[in-house]
Write a structure and sequence with these properties.
single chain; two-stranded antiparallel sheet
Amino acid sequence: MDIRVSILLILNVFGEVTTAFSVSLPPTSVFFCSLINLQANKLHQGSSPTLYSGQKLDEHDPLLLLRLSLLGLNNLRRCLLNLVMEDIETNMCLTPVTEDFGEFMLSRLSQSKRPDHKHLCAVIEELSKTLTEGNHSRTPVAYFAATCSSLDSLLSADGEPPVEVIQPHVVILSLVFPKVSAGVLKRNGLALRLVLSVLRLRSATPECLVSALKCFVHLLTTGNEVSESYNILLNFVTHSDGKVRKLASSCLRDVLVKSSGTKAWQSLSGTIAELFRKYLDLAHKSEVRSAEGAKGAQQVLYILSALKECLALMSKKHIATVIDGFKILLITRDAFIARPVIDSLNALCLNPTSEVPVEALVEVLYHAGVLFSAPETSADAMTSTARLLKVGMMRAFSLNRDICVVKLPSVFNGLKDIIASEHEEAIFAATDALKSLINSCIDETLVRESVNGIRNSNLDARKSSPTVIEKLCATVESLLDYKYHAVWDMAFQVVSTMFDKLGEDASYFMRKTLEDLSDMKDLPDEDFPYTKQLHECVGSGLGAMGPETFLNIVRLNLEASDLSEVNVWLFPILKQYTVGGRLSFFTEYISRMIETMSQKAQQLKLQGLTAASRSVDSLVYSLWALLPSFCNYPVDTVESFPDLGRILCGALQSQAETRGVICTSLNILIQQNKEVVEGKEMPVNDASPAMVRARARYNSDIAAANLKVLRSCAPKLLDVLSRIFLESGKDDGGSLQSAIGNLASIAEKKTVSKLLFKTLRELLEATKTAIAQDESSVSGMDVDNTADKNSSSNLRARLFDLLVSLLPGLDGQEVDTVFSSLKPAMQDPKGQIQKKAYKVLSVILKSSDGFVSKNLEELLELMHNICHVSAKRHKLDCLYFLLAHASRTDDLKARKDIVSSFLPEVILALKEVNKKTRSRAYDVLVQIGHAYADEENGGDNEKLHGYFNMVVGCLAGEKPQMISAAVKGVARLTYEFSDLIASAYNLLPSTFLLLQRKNKEITKANLGLLKVLVAKSPVEGLHANLKSMVEGLLKWPEGTKNLFKAKVRLLLEMLIKKCGTEAVKSVMPEEHMKLLTNIRKVKERKERKYAAASEMSRSQHSKETSSKVSRWNDTKIFSDFDDEDEDSDGDYMDGETHGRSKASSLLKSKASALRSKKNQRQSHLEVNESDDEPLDLMDRYKTRSALRSSELRKRKADSDEEAEFDEEGRLIIHEGERGKRKEISDPDSDAKSSKGSRFSANTSKKNQKRMKTSESGYAYTGKEYASKKASGDLKRKDKLEPYAYWPLDRKMMSRRPDQRAVAVRGMSSVVKLTKRLEGKSTAEALAATKFKKFKRSGQKKSAGKKKSK
């Protein structure tokens, strides 16, 4: 009887099933497919099935046939109908599905060639066929009932059924269990009983067990309670098959999660702990090589693998039991055993919901730190141990501080030993662990206890044991021993962390550490490569202890008689890391040292020791340079600043070199207190721990009190600073002005008003004096000298600068007074005065929008005046504020009138010679656009387009300068605002018409606009306008075609990069196809040339180019220099348009680098003399450059390196010694006329040597031995005999192999000739060489005759 026939008979029972409901089957997991992919069966192909062990299944086996026929049809029908009806009545069934379960499985597995899949498909096909013939629904519930009945019959038979028959049933059950409701699964406990029976089968394969375990876990999670379920899972945790163990561990974890907090959870945790201890004792007590001991050890490893997932989910009591067993395992110091133990503990500590027994955890961490820090430990064990100590101690400290603190020194010692290892990863892990434990496990209470213990005991006769902090600091200090010299950079990080954590209390524990750090400075540089890290570490100690304590430990040693013994290396550290100090320490200690050193410098100067005196003066300045650091969040501003203020006033008047330092200190002091009062937050990310601590001491009340003291000292300081500012000719860096401005912002109003009116009176007097001088100069007496710093013009300029500084402290009425004084100055004929007046006005307009509204008409009238060229930049600032104010008005006509009246002036400024003015004009143009587009202040997109149309309207200008400036303005706005790109495309017809004009200025501007459009436009917009752009670019008037050929080529290359070669080729005119072909060939050639570049250089280039920021560069965009244009698209191309290849980008990078070097070498030789930027004769630098370049061009013209021609125009070539140029004697020429001659007395010896060498290629020619009448050499009187030598070639030292090969080849020819002539007389050697020359010449003549024939 065929097995398939039996299966068909059994499956006919599904005919009476009327309805069933279920959910759709999800895709079969990959894990399931891998499980059923282990054995083969040929049932589907019609051949005999096989056992999974490889044995043939006998179709006539009576036992198998009996088991198959015992599927009771009545029982199956009744079971199935009851299950379905119960499911419907209790409404526990899931949503009905339209997808057939069997059909879905067949679609997934029917194409598989694996025999086990074919066997499974055959069973499902027969089931589906039977259900179809009986017109019954083929749902998961139906398959579940049929499979359970069949499996029950098989398992109820006598004897253990073959596993090859059981496995398909279990697989189907594992698939349909998730589709069946919990009520159906619980029905009569049939499913659970069947699954347990399968799991108890001794002959079950791993694949069958995996499917059965899936069913078992699903039953447990749906509420089925089984008393022996945990034992069953634990048995499979130690199964010999890895897949079964893994699934059993996962099932065990799921059960622990779902049963957390219940009695079953406590029971399961205890069972796991007991099983672990059982196998651990078995392995521990058995003999080493016994079979029982080996089995126990293997089972322990299996349990450890399961504990990595389950330990953190167990109860606290049983976790402690397992951890006690871990200590026994760690004693073995075996990395293979320790790794799962450490992983389990890591998972336990990282799980925030786990119940951690702190005492047991700390004890096992202590053992791990001691056992796995030995030098013979592996790198992996050290690294994992360091990470475990970090997370474990932090978790233990958060749960029980007292227990953790006791073991903390031992853990630190273990991590210290790991740092001493040679394993890089372990060193980094231990360093990170130490830093984390210092920050997490050392709290204020622990530090206070240690500090109080030190204070209350007699340090000289102290007998008590050291505190925990002292032990920890001793461990950290030991990292500075020479034993750890290879990892001192890591040790410095740990020491810095300890300094930062202890803060001011570090002086009690780490004095010796700081002394050791200072001693390291004396180590030689070749043995100590960590100087930078050392300075950072010492700086951390300074920031923690404070400068006063720090300098008591590490002294500057300024009193040393030998200046070389002074610790000058401390000055940069003091300057950078001092924060939160006391101003009184500076006034009492530092100022006293300044006074002493100043007196010492004077004495040395009187003794004639000028160099020593200057060295001492430099030390005095270094001491003064510490003042800004002491003003960085000082703790005693209220008490100490009055005394400091008196010292500063005296130093400002007597020591000019200290004014910058003093002004910087005042600015820091004022600005920090103002920020605290205003509630501004300090960025914590960039701040050091010392800065954070110092800032935390400040609050609004303390800052207000500090400002009150500063306000009381402001009158004296303002008086001194203003007087110095007016008397001094310069203010380097604007330090005086900024200090006056900050003091004015906090000073009382009457103080600032008094100084203001004093300044205005002086300004009035200076103006009257200047008018009188101007009248005298008109009458022929030039009295004023602008080069003199005390001239009336310079004095007026400084007074205006002083007004700018006083503006932060003025009210509205006083600002109006200042404005009244500016009106005549804005019309002054001198550019310097106009510049200062416009600068004051721009500051006023920037600080007060109400002032603009109140004086709008008057300001508009003033802005219509023509200003000096030097004042144009500040006038543009004023125009920006006026136009920005106009953009916010609701009156459309008034806004348009204001903008249209001043916009042409802004646009014309885009053509200014001065770069700062030109850049400011671009900025103003863009800022006005942002003001129109700012929705928060009444702007919108419509106003922006209206503003853009105003700029476009300037294209109607008559002069080329106006037209080109308007085009540049359009390009700048298009670059800034992407919303304007579509409007800019509408200008393309006008742009192409302007390109037809024979004006270089207009053409250059329009090409720049096209470049911006190509770079900023999306690809879709370019494709829409590609044909018109290409055709317009290639239509050129004859006069300008060759001037911008490189620019047009560059634009075409950009179009090809963004749109593709084919798109450009389709719109390219036929007569210009050669240009496109040439571009393609050049690109391919460049890519091939640089394709062989190393990966390092390409990766480095990619990092450099990827970090380039897109920015506007008008010089490159509108430049007419071809070498600049080649790479101009790279600087303003944004991220969306970077479509370049690596090879071409690498080429451009190298080319730009070469150009930059060339430009640097020739920057002093060339002057930009383009027609749109004429030479500014007021600029001394450009004038000198022009004179130098013209002078060098004359030198080049007079150089004898130039080719020589005879009277008939033929080129003269000199053989051997070059003919001397005839000097033309000009009686009218003076000494300067021969300055560039090579024979001039002013020519350097180096140049003469270079010229002499370049004549023949070698430094020595032997020409003094040459005979004028015949060939050969002559003996000269009082000279050596004639000799020959091969001069050294610099190519021998070249890095290029080809050049070295050429040099070696030349040397080898000499060696070969010498060997050939060795042993011959002079006559024989000469005869041989002459014969060879004659032979070669004869061969050449014969060859020539043959050619002539």
